[in-house]
Specification:
The protein has about 475 residues and is of the alpha/beta class. It is built from 17 helices and 13 strands. An eight-stranded parallel β-barrel has the order 1-2-3-4-5-7-10-11, surrounded by seven helices. A three-stranded mixed β-sheet has the order 6-8-9, sandwiched between helices. The structure holds ligand GBH.
Length: about 475
């Protein structure tokens, strides 16, 4: 096949992180920083909730070491940095009448300035660690009428304060995790187990996203000129075989994982398969809600890690539309090598299929905002051995090749790629054990050491992106 051009010259590439996973430098430092408590502080203090007892307030000390981290990203050759802003760090109690923590403002101002000084386009996400005070006041995401105005005010504050320099915004990261892991299976904060709450939580996240995004589009974009969207987790669902039942089941799995959020935003309705299964437990959109949702995401933000084979055989997993998720194929082979985590296998061709599905169904430019790999036992290796992260290099080789085919052969409009993650970090309920970083973190000293995959990934993009931008002005 003839390929005429590579990645566009303004393609953004680098690494992603999330505030709660990397900022903490210890209890004292967090106290001194003025950050309010989030539901993750409370969750970490619940015995047994985090495998190794890690507390979110002591992770990678990015709070103190962000300059070093940004300098390292630059030296590796990245041209962008995708980070998140912590709501309780900016507004400790979270609410629309609550005071601002100036130390939080100074931190993110400095971080953004440091990005620009180093030629990195800042790409900011404003969600994840919900202020505990809002959970105590009204149950957080369970109370749509209360949280929508609180979240919108927080968003407004971010645009007013940082929008002169940040031109790429994400409202939410992976609302599926907040709904299902947080309120359905109880694995993430706030640790609820329910088959009713997730659908309510997701609905209020969707509406909060829409109000926050419309505020930007209508009132800030005209002068600030950036763009805004949501980012969803979603892995490709490959039908186990070509029987009509399994093809239909795979679509149902895509509906429950991605369509749940993306169909309302881009197509104006919940997927029919969800309506059929959930009945009255799935909230209905009002006319006003549909209007604010319409055109509320200017692009499709994609976090993806793996692929599953999907069978129609009925499972008890309602969050997967009662499908059976597997990795095997009819001939008994598996679709890709395993990682340290049961859900994660290396299936590069799944990425190209996923990107084509998303582009065709939602008709938006795509920003790839997370993609990465975990190596078993990496934490117990000496640092000089952990940096030989062959399995991660192999994963990134396959996935970047698949991305290249999606861009060069399928001609999809894909505008960024961020490896997950910049550095080993707090892997939520799994603690510090499973490592996803392309940079090694020594959790005693906080010392950083780049692994082979960091060089591989940045070299790939340096070679394939038409021309480097030179100045990171965010456009
Ligand atoms: C990303 O989610 C997160 O955004 C990031 O914070 C995290 O560090 C990274 O993954 C690595 O895990 O345990 O079998 O129930 C990716 C989407 C959805 C993948 C939930 C894992 C749990 C499967 N994730 N899923 S299971």
């Amino acid at each position: 096949m003839t390929v005429t051009s590579g990645f566009p010259g303004d393609f953004l590439y680098g690494f992603a992180t999330a505030a709660a996973q990397i900022e903490g430098g210890g209890e004292e430092a967090e106290k001194a920083s003025g950050r309010g408590r989030s539901i993750w502080d409370t969750f970490c203090e619940k015995p047994g909730a985090i495998v190794d007892g890690t507390h979110v307030n002591r992770t990678c000390n990015h709070l103190a070491l962000y300059k070093e981290d940004i300098a390292l990203m630059r030296s590796l050759g990245a041209n962008a940095y995708r980070f998140s802003i912590s709501w309780p760090r900016l507004i400790p109690l979270g609410g629309r009448e609550d005071p601002i923590n100036q130390k939080g403002v100074v931190f993110y101002n400095d971080l953004i300035d440091e990005c620009l000084k180093n030629g990195l386009t800042p790409f900011a996400c404003i969600s994840w660690d919900l202020p505990q005070a809002l959970f105590d006041r009204y149950g957080g995401w369970l109370d749509q009428d209360s949280i929508v105005p609180d979240f919108t005010r927080y968003a407004r504050f971010c645009y007013e304060t940082f929008g002169d320099r940040v031109k790429h915004w994400l409202t939410f990261n992976e609302p599926w995790c907040v709904a299902v892991l947080g309120h359905g299976q109880g694995a993430f904060a706030p640790g609820h187990k329910s088959n009713i709450e997730p659908w309510i939580v997701a609905h209020s996240v969707l509406i909060a996203h829409a109000h926050a995004a419309k505020l930007y589009i209508n009132h800030f974009k005209p002068t600030q000129g950036g763009s805004i969207g949501i980012t969803l987790n979603g892995d490709w669902a490959e039908p186990f075989d070509d029987t009509p039942e399994n093809i239909k089941a795979a679509q149902r799995k895509m509906d429950f994982a991605v369509g749940w959020f993306a169909d309302p935003i881009y197509l104006g309705r919940y997927p029919q398969s969800m309506i059929d299964i959930l009945g009255d437990r799935l909230p209905k959109f009002t006319v006003e809600e549909l209007a604010v949702l319409k055109d509320s995401s200017e692009f499709y933000g994609c976090n993806t890690y793996t692929t599953n084979t999907i069978k129609a055989t009925r499972s008890d997993d309602e969050f997967a539309g009662f499908t059976t998720m597997a990795f095997d194929r009819p001939d008994g082979s598996v679709i890709g090598p395993r990682s340290a985590l049961g859900w994660l296998r290396d299936v590069p061709w799944g990425l190209r299929k996923l990107l084509n599905y998303l582009a065709a169904r939602y008709q938006k430019p795509i920003y790839m905002t997370e993609n990465g790999w975990c190596i078993g036992g990496e934490g117990s290796l000496r640092v000089q051995d952990a940096t030989d992260d062959d399995g991660r290099v192999q994963f990134y080789q396959g996935y970047t090749q698949s991305l290249k085919e999606a861009v060069e052969i399928d001609r999809l409009d894909i505008r960024s790629y961020f490896g997950w993650s910049f550095i080993d970090n707090f892997e939520w309920a799994s603690g510090l054990g499973p490592r996803f970083g392309s940079v090694h973190c020594n959790y005693e000293t906080f010392e950083r050491t780049p692994k082979d995959s960091a060089y591989f990934l940045m070299d790939f993009f340096k070679k394939n992106v038409a021309r480097s931008k030179g100045i990171a002005n965010g456009h």
